Amino acid sequence: MTSIRPAREEQTAVAPFAAQIAESAPPAVWRHRHLLDLDAVSPEEIATVLRSAKAMKAMLRREVKKAPTLRGRTIMTLFSEPSTRTRVSFETAGKLLSADVINLSSSGSSTEKGESLVDTVLTLQAAAADVLVMRHSHSGAPYLAASVLERTSVINAGDGSHAHPTQALLDLFTIEERLGSLEEKRVVIVGDISHSRVARSDLWGLCKMGATPVLCGPPTLMPWDLLKRRGFDEGHPFAGVEVETDIERALGGADVVMPLRLQKERMAAGLLPSVREYARLWQVNQERLSRHCPEAVVMHPGPMNEGVEISPDVAHGGSSAVEEQVTNGLAVRMALLLMLAAPHGGDHD
Amino acid sequence: MPEAGEKSILSREQIRRALNRIAHEILERNGGAGELLLVGVRTRGVPLAQRLGELVSDIEGEPVPVGSLDVTLYRDDVHLRGLLTLESTDLPVSVTDRRVVLVDDVLFTGRTVRAAMDAVMDIGRPTKVQLAALIDRGHRDLPIRADYVGKNIPSSLSEDIRVRLVETDGVDEVVIMRREGAPFDRLRTSGERT
């Protein structure tokens, strides 16, 4: 009934404004009940989240930042690993949309008495959780939870070294906000990519949105499991990914540089010689940035080891988007909660 | 031109005249364009507010700020609306101490306007909030009325009214049709009131 007709000739006077409206409003798409990783999320769905998050971010600048939309909905966060920014970000996002947010951690819960994960999440569903935000040290735990929950949506807030989709979405949002688009942007990720759930979700998101991820770090810490058969299989999801162990070469022409936190336990596993050698070979510092990519935006998923993977002057320098990432994370999580926590939200699978 | 099963209520020319009259009424009621802020309610209120803004600016010879408002977060029927996403709310000036004129295409139950008022109040404290609607089709659920109306269309609940604008739909027209799935009910327009 609302078919678009070609404008009649005498009506073309208003055409520039028409183009503006058409551009700003492609149809909103989202088909999932849970958000577990970005591998199952389409580029159109990612674009939908980013657009909604942009409007949410504008709301964060208002005098009254709160809206009544999710009144009467309950969001529970279940974290089996320490986290400040992700948990606080979800809690704030829920509260700004007027949901009730209840925080649980494994310590001090029945998990310590030996309750299984399935029993825990079923209990939370029975206690009327509409959304369960889950951080777990074991890869795949949110998938197990999602497989047994019928009324509760699961959002993966980081599982083992597998995925951290909301961090990836906020990274995509930050890049798009700073650079206008993700298309063909050279995003250099430096460090322990193999064990980084952030980098793994970023890889899915960046490739889907047409960016070029460049992975840099010790060969022992590259995600070879994801990259295998790349260059052989047609339509490989990571066909566009570049791997470059030399940071000087990797940084050439970079639009974004994202060092990852170096986790001390990797040394114990024999994957790295020493922190000092790592810093010498792969630290993102001002001297390297000035030489190879002075305009690049610097991002970090936090928490930072300043002086190891990133130098303090870069971490707090003019090209750093680290603090902005925190605000953007809030906006992205508000957009996601609006889609997943609203009552009977849409034609989800 | 209306599609099969549709009956035209307003032509392009009639929409133009109605907006022209509303622009004059806004200026008359507010004693000029000072402190005015026109706010279009997404989606079709936005181009209507833009057009009214141009008309008012032309008449007064001074630019009048025009903004857009997304009321999704304030709706009372989020459970009926499926996928929820937010579009931008874009206000060029603060609403505080302004005479805000909300602009929408069709005034029906009044629930969208209620949501829009709540949204505006959370952004600031306007001195006045007024409402302009291109079509008032009746059937209010809430005690809300428009200050400026393009055309009153007494309608049946088994009918649908569509406003199409060049900016969003490629054509300017307002049509009435039988609501899909509704029992047959003779189409009524103000021209053939029963």
Note down, in words, how this protein is organized:
The complex is a heterodimer of chains A (349) and B (194). Chain A is an alpha/beta fold and 349 residues long. Chain A has 14 helices and nine strands. In chain A, the strands form two sheets. Chain A has a five-stranded parallel beta sheet with strand order 7-6-5-8-9, covered by helices on one side. Chain A has a four-stranded parallel beta sheet with strand order 2-1-3-4, sandwiched between helices. Chain A is globular, with a radius of gyration of 21 Å. The two termini of chain A are 27 Å apart. The model of chain A is unreliable at 1-23 and 345-349 (pLDDT under 50). Chain B is α/β, with parallel strands linked by helices. Chain B has one domain (9-157): Rossmann fold. Chain B is 27% helix and 26% strand. Chain B has four helices and eight strands, in the order βαβαββαβββαβ. In chain B, α1 packs across α2. Mean pLDDT of chain B is 90; it is low at 184-194. The chains are: A alpha/beta (349), B alpha/beta (194).
Tell me briefly what this model is:
Chain A is an alpha/beta fold and about 350 residues long.
- Quaternary structure of the protein: heterodimer
> What is the fold-level CATH name, i.e. the topology of chain B?
Rossmann fold
- Write out the CATH superfamily name of the largest domain in chain A: Aspartate/ornithine carbamoyltransferase
Q: Architecture of the largest domain in chain A in CATH?
A: 3-Layer(aba) Sandwich
Which sequence of strands runs across the widest sheet of chain B? 3-2-4-5-6
The number of helical elements of chain A comes to 14
**How does the major sheet of chain A shape up?**
5 strands, parallel
Apparent shape of chain B: globular
Radius of gyration of chain A: 21 Å
Structural class of chain B: alpha/beta
Write the element-wise H/E pattern of chain B from the N-terminal end onward.
Answer: EHEHEEHEEEHE
The parts of chain A where pLDDT drops under 50 for at least 5 residues are 1-23, 345-349
